[in-house]
Amino acid sequence: MPKLIPYHNTYKATGVDDADAQDIVLIHGWGLHAIVFDDIVPALLERFRVTVVDLPGMGQSPLPGADYTLEFLADQVLAIMPGRAHVLGWSLGGLVALAMAGKAPERVLSVVTVAASPRFTSTENWDAAMKPEILAKFAEMFDEDQEGTLVRFLALNCKGSAAMRADTARLKEILYFCGLPAPRALRGGLDLLRDADLRSLLPTLPMPVLMVFGENDHIVPAAAMAASEPLINQGRTALIEQVAHVPFLSAPDTFTQAVYDFYREHQLVH
């Protein structure tokens, strides 16, 4: 039986000679797929060869029979990633990006997380996060009405954004473009968000790390920025104003400027 690998696509750089371009891999969040990054791909192609990937069971990717763990997702993306690359992950994808950096630091040149923190749910000494009981209630609702819960979650992604209505409509359009994700992938993703804790990993990462937060995020609160920054070994955090959980959708130009500023600070691009 052939090995199942995630759907992925690589776009040639446009602003530099493709043979000289560095690689960057984009990893989406829970319930969506790679099309969510469409608004920022052109700007990234000015300096990079861009690979987008659909996580297993989402978008166009098959769902292997393995347990839906963070290690499994990291291995799946590493399997299709170019030899060495920068990695940018949004929400759940941010956790995957950090896990990839921990598993293969020699291959990951830098990490940008977007609307993600090393622990998604609150616990002792980690207050700036979603309460576990809220996520548990969300999971209970998901078991009763999967599609309805997914659509409500998309609206929560955009709550607080200055472009909330337009952003919500766009996410719904993206959601249905490839058909609904596999229920097992969605449920496994919720369990992963509940349990994953990368607070001890983050300080060990040797590559530059940028963690981007949205000022009005109702899923990963902006307060997580202050809690996360001391854990970064090399790098920093950034806050984008008037956006919620999807800053690259609400303010793509501001977002890409913040990312490129970080790359230039660390001499990752010229």
Beta-strand fraction estimate: 15-25%
Largest sheet: 7 strands, mixed
Overall mean confidence score, pLDDT: 95
Report the end-to-end length measured between terminal Cα atoms. 45 Å
Helix/strand order, N-terminal first:
EEHEHEHEHHHHEHEHH
Roughly how much helix do the residues carry, as a percent range? 25-40%
Number of DSSP helical runs? 10
Key attributes of the depicted protein:
270 residues, seven-stranded mixed beta sheet
Question: Can you offer a commentary on this structure?
Answer:
The protein is α/β, with parallel strands linked by helices and 270 residues long. It has 10 helices and 7 strands. Helix 4 packs across helix 5 and helix 5 packs antiparallel against helix 6. The longest helix is centred in the middle third of the chain and has 14 residues.
SSE topology:
Layout lengths: L7 E4 L10 E6 L13 H4 L3 E6 L16 H11 L4 E6 L1 H12 L4 E7 L17 H13 L1 H13 L5 H14 L5 H13 L13 E6 L9 H5 L6 E6 L6 H4 L1 H14 L5
Parallel strand pairs: 2-3, 2-4, 4-5, 5-6, 6-7
Antiparallel strand pairs: 1-3
Helix pairs in contact: 2-3, 4-5, 5-6
Summarize the structure.
The protein has helices spanning 41-44, 70-80, 92-103, 132-144, 146-158, 164-177, 183-195, 224-228, 247-250, 252-265; strands at 8-11, 22-27, 48-53, 85-90, 108-114, 209-214, 235-240. It is an alpha/beta fold and 270 residues long.
